[in-house]
Amino acid sequence: MVKVLKAGLYTTIQDLGRYGYQEYGVPYSGVMDAYSASMANILLGNNENTAVMEITMSGPTLEFNCHTSICISGADLSPKLNKTPIKINNPIPVKSGDIVSFGKHISGFRCYLAVTGGFKTEKMMNSHSMYQGITKQPLLFKNQELIIDATLKDFDKKHAAIKINTSHFKTKELEVFKGPEFDKLSKAQQDLLFSQHFTIAKENNRMAYQLLEPLENSLEAIITSLVLPGTIQLTPSGKLIILMRDCQTTGGYPRVLQLKGASINILSQKFTGDSIRLTLKE
What is the model's pTM? Predict the structure, then answer.
């Protein structure tokens, strides 16, 4: 069992997502940064789809009431075990009574805490991913207790030699494909999309990231059509909106671009004021 002594800014349980229910309007959800979450699981010897704790910007304080192993990957939020700093991307044994906490933000925006065997939270539509209206709760709260598997065996270090891609957190380049309405843009509009840097607006969350710089727009709204994580929509006012893991399943704004899966992971580690650049993938 793990007790949440402090919930943090926005902490949830997620796996790789909820697939096969989009026709009913159910979002994919799942971890924002699938790369980092998968690394945390792989380093522990878990399946990549094992449920992990997604921690945003400011971390929780957790009391472990059984023996297990943990691994933290993604953003560096100065994790500590019993007030002693611990390394990220490194499997660590935890004993009953140990306290895991987080401190100063160093880099990135979201980190992932995996435990051996994963978190045994509510499973809805074949996924543990928390989402308002699908699971009983949308995020973790203070004094909540989470079920995990207790283990007394030593960690098998054969999983602990995976090279981490550090450029994943440093790059500003997001690779994209042309969206269904891309060719309706003028040549000048198309060129502008790839010639300037864009700034992430304060409106950024698990549903979507907005960009500050507008793109002059004369396109008409489209018939409500399918969208998915990574779709870049262009609003009538010229606002660019990048849909993320909790996005709706349909939309009526022109879909001018589509992020590669890896680019969604990269974007999820950016936050307000960060700069990005879009690069067309042919």
Answer: 0.94
**Low pLDDT (below 70) residues in the chain:** 152-161
Q: What 3-state class would DSSP assign to 125?
A: coil
- Sequence-separated (6 or more) residues with CB below 8 Å from residue 89: 39, 40, 43, 71, 72, 73, 164
pLDDT at position 218: 85
Residues of the chain by 3-state class (helix, strand, coil), percent to 5? 15, 35, 50
Among 79, 77, 61, smallest CA distance to 144 is for 61
Residue 155 is predicted with a pLDDT of 54
Q: Is 267 helix (H, G, I), strand (E, B) or coil?
A: helix
- Homologous superfamily, domain 171-280: Cyclophilin-like (2.40.100.10)
70 forms beta bridges with: 92, 115
β pairing state of 68-76 and 250-251: unpaired
Q: Where along the chain do its domains lie?
A: 2-166, 171-280
Q: Could you tell me where the beta strands, DSSP code E, fall in the chain?
A: 2-6, 10-14, 52-56, 61-64, 68-76, 79-81, 84-85, 92-94, 99-102, 107-115, 145-146, 173-178, 198-204, 208-211, 225-226, 231-234, 240-243, 250-251, 255-259, 275-280
